[in-house]
Structure formats: structure tokens, C-alpha cells
């Protein structure tokens, strides 16, 4: 018997329930990845992620070859390709991970229809791309199907028993009838960020080992420190499923201590957003909780938006974050918060414009976490204090007290001493003129006034 395993955002062999189930059920397996043009049409194809994905596929193929198998890559609409492969290889079943986006729902529905028509069974597995499946815990005593507030979700989520991580299969036999195309190569992708990390399960597990082997206690008190680089940088590996969230949480709990606990809490944010989007797929584009309609768009804020994208707002810590994003395809969480707050609350620009720019560059960029974090910051989402506005000067002084992060990413300010690096407009006029760094784009007080008026609190 033959079973197809359709890989999507789960590009690994460790702890892979669909692969595990398929290996138990069938003699031969077709490990399949489909490059669907629908992903491109949905505007979800960006060079940094395309390059990282190519690394992930190459690595997955190598790992399968060590076990006697190989990865089969095809291009075309996913349901059509899976059906064709299943028919060509006479497969009886297809296994895949559950997804939460509207795109994933449509994909599952079409797959079911296509496979039903040829008598092939589709098995969809939970807890592959999240630690706890969306919908596994719901608020008791209410009629809602998901948690809208993080802390009570975290409490319930923490009590859910997680399975033992599954070992990778020892042998994978792929039928000769399974035909695929050449694997994509990261080297063929143009316009990637120069500081992009290497993709793949192997690179992810190596990063994980150094993460667990490092000083995790730093994480608790320094994860907000912009220059400290005290976070795991595992997000791209989690996004592509090169690492298993179940395995990661189990490992962190076994490690114990305040650093590991703080880390588990962050991973829970990921699951939290997944269960929100699973219940409300429209939240990828529509305001989740509170609708606001006075946003500025491309037409009336083109120059402000361009300055923000280019890291030329004149607010050093905002510019540092935006330049890190362009250079590394990744940005520190604190910088994501304050750059997003600056765009949506100080410049009052529609969060969707910022979210789209992030998606064009982030190597971990995903509809679930990006859109819902943007909504959180913009005050349209799950933040219980939607009127908080982050002041970039205060944030800079607090989370980059020595100005190291700013000087690293904004070389024009490299020679400015002390905390004035966060307020270069306070330097003497001649010194300022010699810096070749823009004046502040907006007076923060004006931004706050507009924000309060727009929110009916002015
Ligand atoms: P760590 O601090 O080491 O955290 C460990 C893991 O927990 C991360 O890898 C990530 O998977 C998860 N995590 C941490 N914080 C969050 C969070 N707030 N929401 C969801 N998961 C979290 N994360 C993405 O994975 N993809 C995105 O597209 C994305 N867009 C964002 C946009 C904005 C405006 C903001 C404010 C945050 C966004 N985040 C996104 C969340 C967070 O910034 C990143 O997950 C984190 O910076 C990744 O770095 P790390 O792996 O070193 O994190």
C-alpha cells in the first residue's frame, strides 16, 4: 500500500504526526511538497521566505535520502497535484497537518473533494504546527469558540497534556512511480536580505541546541533588550515547521527555570493567535474587535509611509528596527512593537499597510502571527489596553539604554554619545546638520492629539 504525506508548514522529520501515521499505515510513502501558484497570487510569496523555504526543502530531501527516500516536489494547484500524485502512485490515503488560515481551509476543502472523487482518504492531523490544537481549549461558561484574551488562554493552555514527541522514521520507501521536479535553490532567489539565516530542520536543530546550551536565564530579564540578542531567533524555523512546537515546549518545561518559563509563554502567544485566526479567518484583513475607519492610507500618507519603510523617520529606534528588518529579514520583538505602534498610532496609518510591508520582508512572516500582532498593536485586536501608545524616545532609552542597537543600525548616529543618540534633534544645530540624518517626521504631541481625536478620546 502507498500513502502520500503532503508537507506544508511542517518541513521536518522529527515529531511529525502525518508522516508517523503514514509510515505505520503503508509500505511505501510519497513525501510531497507542492509549490502552489495560489500562494503567490495571495501575495504571500516574498524573496526572504522563498530562499528559506528552498533551504528547508533541500534539507528535508537530504534527511529523507539518509533514510532511503526522497522528497517529491511538484508545481501547480495543490489539490490537483495531490490528486495526480495519489492516482499515479495508486495511493489509498493522504496525510497532512491542519492549517488555520482561510487559504488552508480552502485547500483542505478542495483536497477533500478531489480525493473523494478518486476514493482516496484524507487524514488531517492536529498539533503539528501548534503545540495545542486551535479549539482544544475554549472559555468555559460562554458560547464563544476561542479565547480573545491571552492570560486566561495561557492558564488553560498550560494544563493541556502534550504528547511525547514522535521520533523520525528510520526507513522511508518511496515508490518509483512518484515523479517530481528539481528542488528549488536558495541561490536562485534574487533580492534577499543579506543577513538571512540558513533554513532547514538541521539548521533549526543546531540553533536549538545552542539555545538550550546557552544561558537561558538571560531570556527572562533581557528578552526586551534590543541590543542584547537574548531571544532564540527560532521564529523562522517555527514558521516553516522545521521545528516542532510540541517538542520545543516539552524541552523547555524539562529544562525548567524562569527563562524557560518565559520562553514557553512566548510560544503560547503563537498558539493563542492560531486559535484566534482559526475561529476568525477574516481577522487576517478585517479589524478583529474594534473597527476604526479614520486610518490614513497610501493616498494621504505616502511620504510618511515611505520614510517609515526606509527607516528615515528621524526617530532613531524606529529607524534602527526598520533597517534591521530590511537587512536581516527579521526584527526584534520590541522593535516590531514600537515600529508598528509608531506607524499605526503616531502616524495613524492603516495597520494593513504596515503588516504588508512586514510580510514582504520577514523570514518568519506569517499571516497568523503578523496580522494578529499588528492588530494587537493597532488597538483593533486582542490588546486589553488598546489606547496605549508607545513613545519611541521613552522606548529607546528604556530598551536600548546605551544606544548600542541604534548605533548598530543607524550608522549616521554612530558617533553621537550618550542618550542623545535617541534624541538627535537636541544636539547643537551645526552638529546635527553634519549628521546627514533626517529631522523627526512628526511632533509626537501632534501624533498623540490626532490619535486621541480619531479614537474619540480627544
Ligand atoms: P523568542 O522571544 O525567542 O520567542 C520564542 C518563540 O515564541 C518565537 O520564535 C515565536 O514563534 C513565538 N513568539 C514570541 N512572541 C510572539 C508573539 N508576540 N506572537 C506570536 N508568537 C510569538 N512572529 C512570527 O512568528 N511571525 C510574524 O510574522 C510576526 N509578526 C509580528 C508583527 C508584529 C507587529 C509584532 C509586534 C510581532 C510579530 N511577531 C511575529 C511576534 C514576535 O515578534 C516574533 O515571533 C519574535 O520576535 C521572533 O523572535 P524569536 O524567535 O527570537 O522570539
UniProtKB/TrEMBL annotation:
One matching Pfam family: FAD_binding_7
SUPFAM superfamilies registered for this protein in UniProt: Cryptochrome/photolyase FAD-binding domain (SSF48173), Cryptochrome/photolyase, N-terminal domain (SSF52425)
List the Gene3D superfamilies hit by this protein, alphabetically. Answer: 1.25.40.80, DNA Cyclobutane Dipyrimidine Photolyase, subunit A, domain 3, HUPs
Q: Where is this region: Disordered?
A: 184-207
A molecular-function term among this protein's GO annotations: FAD binding
- Give the keywords, sorted: Chromophore, FAD, Flavoprotein, Lyase
Q: Which residues form the Photolyase/cryptochrome alpha/beta domain?
A: 1-130
The Swiss-Prot or TrEMBL record lists the needed cofactor(s) as:
FAD
Q: Answer yes or no on keyword tRNA processing.
A: no
Q: Which biological process, per GO, is one annotated for this protein?
A: nucleobase-containing compound metabolic process
Highest taxon above the source species: Bacteria
**Binding locations of FAD:** 219, 231-235, 263, 364-366
Q: How is the cofactor bound?
A: Binds 1 FAD per subunit.
Indicate the family of this protein.
Answer: Belongs to the DNA photolyase family.
Q: What is this protein called?
A: Deoxyribodipyrimidine photo-lyase
Organism of origin: Streptomyces antnestii
